Amino acid sequence: MSVAENKVTLGFEAEVKQLLNLMIHSLYSNKDIFLRELISNASDAADKLRFSALSNESLYEGDSQLKIIVDYDKEQRTITIADNGIGMNRDEVRENIGTIARSGTRHFFASLTGDEAKDSQLIGQFGVGFYSSFIVADKVTLETRDAGGDPEEGVRWESNGEGEFTLETIKKADRGTKITLHLREGEDEFLEGWRLRTIIRKFSDHISIPIEMQKETYGDDEDGKPVEYETVNSASALWTKSKDEITEEQYAEFYRHVSHDLKEPLARLHSRVEGTNEYNLLLYIPSHAPFDLWDRDPKHGVKLYVRKVFITDDADKLMPRYLRFIRGVIDSDSLPLNISRELLQENQLLEKIRSGAVKKLLGLIEDLAKNEPDKFKVFWKEFGQALKEGIIDDYKNKDRIAKLLRFSSTGNDAQEVSLDDYISRMQEGQDKIYFITGDSLSAAKNSPHLEIFRKKGVEVLLLGDRIDSWLTDHLSDYEGKHLQSVARGDLDLGKLEDEKEKEDINNVSHDFEALIEKIKKALDGKVADVRISHRLTESPACLVSEAYGMSRTMEKILKEVGQNVQGSKPVFEINPSHALIAKLKNETDETRFADLTLILFDQAVLSEGGQIDDPAAFVHKLNGLLQQLIV
Ligand code: ADP
Ligand code: MG
Description:
This protein is of the alpha+beta class.
């Protein structure tokens, strides 16, 4: 094939163009990061090769000394970054660089704020790192050949970042990728060895393979001497060093590397576990939720190494789902190096590592809660909802997780109330933790079920997050106290109600027996029961779930997601001291009785955020009653 024949010009996808435009024109204030991004890709490529070579030595092609070489050429005004990692074949180049079918890109555009400083922080976090080379270069040439591939089938990719790129087949004897940046006018500052060394030491010191640069020669004419290279970074796996050998800056830089997040992490955990199952872990809690926290399949944030060899960043067994926001590295001394991804799924040692890591992480979060309340607030705001899943998924650690939960309550709108706080404020004679679930905080807060609790000054937890109905299904007790929904079952206030109040209600019940029978008939088929309420002080009526079975909020959520739930019928409770109920009691006109009853029922449905069966009929009946006021 002639060179002309095999060279094709292709257009970038629209999103890539937009991205490139953004890089070039607005991310300029942070331009040093191009080097970090390219070195990070080279290091990933080395990790991938090392892992693949575990099962196929020949991929090394006789050279297993993985490294990255950074060079510059003052005359050509170029910088090159070369690695002997896994490389790419033609399809991979096309796929990885040029088209971005990555879910990250869409999130990236959605997250842009227009504030240059903020937006530049987003690069890399979204898997768009390679394109940052166009911040300083007006032409980028990438030459690559995949490990174990045909030296005649290398690939050259080239672009000026303006909408198109070319692909051609080239000869490439050595495997790996070499990227040449042709610097823009005015970027000559990067053509200095010390400048590049400074950037590398600052951003890429922790990279675990050597990053080499040509030794600087000073003054003397050294022509004829072979070019010598030296290692610029410290090239050791940071997590295997002892804590006192690591600076804060190195910890921070490593976090940036594993998380692609330029913000400071909230907290970190670095420890070594000794014994029969030995491992190192260096884990971080970010200071903000990753963009894919709520995706169905979020990227896993913890990388697994075995004796410093990267194995995978895709082991969902490494962290439970509810801790999916954790970033970092776990490095095992005990797992076999040639462990396959399939075997990882059921490995006992890995299971132990995971449960050990989870315990330590919970300890770290507990420590924030206890000693760094401001940080814990941030933690809860960003990750509290995810942590709640732990109550459902992690039976073994349920008690510890429950201690970390924070809720809103009738005394505090912000999610700041712990179950321990709640217990410490319980009223004399109160033996239960009361809560209400709703579609939202305001739905929960305005529920008629809270009336009696307000009157008696009893705090009720307000649970307005979607997951809360599941949560409370799995957390029936805390520290020996039952968690009781105020919207469920026959309300037993226990000692909170004195004998006289109980007697009053009993007496009233007698008076209302006939009315209750009439209401049951009028609401036939809609309700499981009708009874006198202990809950209400201001509203005429409300709906209550039966003591067992699904909560009404849960029922609603399941219906919304299209599940066919056999909803249990609610209990209709009436407030005997309300004027409308008194009116109903004395109503002799059958039609008016039926209309008023149905209006009260529908109102009760509405007041808990539900949907009534026949809104038109409701409005019609209500207008009928209103008109009687006018005449
Ligand atoms: P990310 O690294 O987050 O995936 P990048 O834009 O930095 O995003 O890189 C895009 C993709 O290009 C990488 O995922 C990888 O598949 C490929 N790539 C980039 N640089 C190299 C390299 N030096 N060697 C092999 N593949 C590379
Ligand atoms: Mg990258």
